[in-house]
Specification:
Blueprint (H helix, E strand, L loop, with lengths): L1 H4 L7 H22 L16 H20 L3 H18 L23 H16 L6 H9 L14
Helix pairs in contact: 2-3, 2-5, 3-4, 4-5
């Protein structure tokens, strides 16, 4: 868990505020997308998709969203969201005529495309790579419970 110990994982100042805004919006959106799916986690896509995959997708959206919202276990939460959004993006490129190498979610809704899940994937990738920022549960745990320094070291200019 080197990401948890790395002080550069907890950006402060304006970058930390930017990550907080991205994390709050992304976490809320994913949790709200996953919440109705959690009422029937193994059957919300219908009988054509295995129940285990449906459950993983519902849990990835809902619990990944909550993790991002609070900045708790951010890399794990972001990876869960990335996995679901990767498959959701690829599902737009499959249909009943072509072989379904990925989950086929059924008939396409007019005007629906791969843009939204791809944007969610990119945002989750950003949080996966940058960390949650200083305003997160991860930073609190690292600083107060583990006694780790969470502020990035000052950059010094060398001649």
């Amino acid at each position: 868990m080197n990401w948890f110990r790395n002080p550069r994982f907890y950006a402060d100042g304006l970058p930390g505020v930017g990550l907080l805004i991205l994390r709050l919006w992304m976490g809320y959106a994913m949790a709200m997308h996953g919440l109705p799916k959690m009422s029937n986690p193994f059957g919300w896509m219908g009988p054509n998709v295995p129940g285990v995959l449906q459950g993983l997708a519902a849990a990835g959206e809902f619990f990944g969203g909550l993790g991002l919202l609070f900045g708790a276990l951010t890399p794990i939460a972001a990876f869960g969201v990335m996995s679901v959004m990767f498959v959701a993006t690829l599902s737009f490129f499959t249909n009943d005529v072509t072989p379904t190498y990925f989950v086929n979610m059924g008939p396409k809704v007019p005007g629906d495309n791969a843009e939204a899940p791809f944007v969610y994937f990119i945002f989750a990738l950003t949080l996966f790579l940058t960390g949650p920022g200083l305003l997160s549960i991860d930073a609190f745990l690292a600083k107060y419970l583990l006694g780790r320094k969470t502020t990035p070291p000052a950059v010094t200019k060398t001649s």
